User: Which sequence fits this backbone?
């Protein structure tokens, strides 16, 4: 594998090949993994990121940290995308997936140095990943039904243990589980779905973290358009508009030349009538709550006040879309129909039991309660400052995702490094049964998984070697137990990082959604394989402009 680094190609680029490019890729992956490594686990630390304009983000969430880093190296970018994918697919476990991928890559690199062909390693990793998934599904999962609601609360607690709200996990876990169960919907196939987007999260300064509250209904951070408008409407019929309800003005560049000054008055009157006719068409269908993303001027407000309807202007488009979805309304961006006339049909209206303006902390909010089509919930977070509220929002989002995945996949696994330790023992035994070259790769895969319990222990300032070897001894006993039930129960053993001992994590309620573990294993293996396949990198350099003394700047 001769390294011909500075071999200039005819295309004007630099070629790096063989061992050198692998070393670079492994180094880049390890750098990324080291950044997030210390934020893993219940005693993980936070990162403070300051961007080019001085905005500060304090976060513990792997995907958020990596998103904000402007990563140049192409191999490191693969890991950043891996974290984003895990965030999208599962919502939690973004840090661990990056750490596992980097560790797999590092160990594969050692094997390549020892003259084992990358293809052999890739085959071994694929085989190990498949066996690992099978083992988790058969041996390590517990059905949620057998554990009841406490199980969901424990999943939420485990997810938030490493976050800023970990100290108040009993309070927030209840909040999250209530929010997610409030938005349950059943689709046409009869499957229960829990849309995360139906839970709206609002942030308000002040008070303590425990003053956060869950509200049944969709909360929007807006107020009614004028003081004279009603602030509570029962049996609401909601019109969701994306139309400007202000006096119609001529478009730019349209000039009207008038001979008769009386005509000027007619034109002005017609301008006003255009909008009033629109509003009357909407009110005629029985709409009593009108929400628009654009403005409503005073002249038009008078019509709403007289009709006793509630008008809300400048609603965020995302909020309006979700309200339209949950009330069964249609978001209308123009009243024109196919015949070129303006109409508004009663079928466009959404329904809710009541729409009310309430004062929450220092702000007024509009609450849409009892939505007809999908139920919705809102969480209002309270906290000391913006950074804290942003991080709380990210933590709550991760917890919501974890609970949602648990409910949809209906299976959990013990946390605290239990699954990884069990897998490592199982795969080591599995590797010795193979007579082919893949044996080495599978053994390395087994060892790579131990990086999770090791990192957890190191972050907790505990002796990782001691704890991990104890944990492996327990899992080894559990897998060679035969018919001994008391030994079999040892497979639920994981780390207790506060006390620095091993314990039965199923009984202690440290649980994670099984789907999160499966997805992260598959994704980490795929990412490691993708980087391992690369043995040549050709970088085309940008053409230098000749003759310019400031060339290249």
Assistant:
């Amino acid at each position: 594998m001769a390294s011909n680094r500075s071999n200039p190609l005819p295309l004007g680029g630099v070629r790096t090949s063989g061992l050198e490019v692998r070393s670079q890729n492994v180094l880049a992956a390890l750098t990324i993994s080291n950044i997030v490594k210390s934020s893993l686990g219940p005693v993980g630390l936070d990162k403070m990121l300051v961007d080019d304009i001085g905005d500060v983000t304090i976060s513990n969430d792997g995907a958020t940290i990596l998103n904000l880093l402007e990563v140049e190296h192409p191999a490191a970018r693969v890991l950043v995308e891996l974290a984003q994918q895990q965030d999208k697919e599962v919502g939690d476990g973004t840090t661990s997936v990056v750490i596992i991928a980097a560790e797999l890559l590092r160990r594969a690199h050692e094997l390549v140095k020892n003259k084992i062909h990358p293809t052999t390693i890739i085959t071994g990793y694929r085989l190990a990943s498949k066996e690992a998934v099978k083992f988790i599904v058969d041996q390590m999962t517990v059905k949620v039904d057998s554990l009841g609601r406490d199980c969901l609360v424990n999943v939420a607690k485990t997810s938030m243990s490493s976050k800023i709200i970990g100290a108040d996990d009993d309070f927030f876990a209840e909040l999250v589980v209530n929010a997610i169960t409030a938005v349950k919907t059943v689709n046409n196939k009869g499957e229960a779905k829990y849309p995360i987007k139906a839970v709206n999260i609002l942030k308000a300064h002040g008070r303590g973290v425990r003053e956060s509250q869950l509200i049944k209904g969709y909360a929007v951070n807006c107020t009614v358009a004028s003081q004279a408008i009603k602030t509570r409407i029962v049996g609401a019929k909601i019109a969701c508009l994306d139309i400007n309800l202000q006096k119609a003005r001529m478009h730019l560049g349209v000039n009207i030349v008038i001979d008769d000054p009386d005509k000027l008055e007619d034109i002005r009157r017609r301008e006003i009538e255009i909008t009033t006719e629109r509003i009357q068409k909407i009110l005629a269908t029985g709409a009593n709550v009108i929400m628009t993303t654009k403005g409503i001027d005073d002249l038009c407000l008078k019509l709403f006040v007289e009709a006793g309807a509630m008008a809300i202007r400048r609603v965020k488009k995302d909020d309006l879309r979700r309200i339209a979805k949950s009330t069964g309304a249609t978001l209308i961006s123009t009243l024109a129909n196919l015949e070129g006339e303006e109409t508004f049909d009663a079928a466009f209206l959404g329904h809710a039991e009541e729409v009310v303006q309430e004062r929450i902390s220092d702000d007024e909010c509009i609450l849409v309660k009892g939505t007809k089509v999908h139920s919705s919930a809102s969480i209002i977070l309270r906290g000391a400052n913006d950074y804290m509220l942003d991080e709380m929002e990210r933590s709550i989002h991760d917890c919501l995702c974890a609970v949602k995945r648990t409910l949809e996949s209906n299976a959990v696994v013990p946390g605290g490094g239990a699954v990884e330790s069990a897998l490592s023992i199982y795969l080591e035994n599995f590797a010795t049964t193979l007579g082919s070259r893949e044996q080495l790769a599978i053994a390395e895969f087994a060892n790579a998984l131990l990086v999770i319990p090791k990192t957890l222990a190191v972050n907790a300032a505990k002796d990782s070697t001691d704890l991990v070897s104890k944990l492996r001894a327990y899992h080894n006993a559990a897998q060679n137990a035969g018919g001994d039930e008391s030994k079999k129960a040892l497979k639920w053993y994981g780390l207790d990082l506060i006390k620095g001992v091993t314990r039965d994590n199923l009984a202690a309620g440290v649980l994670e959604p099984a789907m999160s573990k499966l997805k992260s294993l598959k994704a980490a293996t795929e990412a490691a394989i993708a980087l391992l396949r690369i043995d040549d990198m050709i970088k085309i350099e940008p053409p230098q402009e000749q003759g310019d003394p400031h060339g290249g700047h």
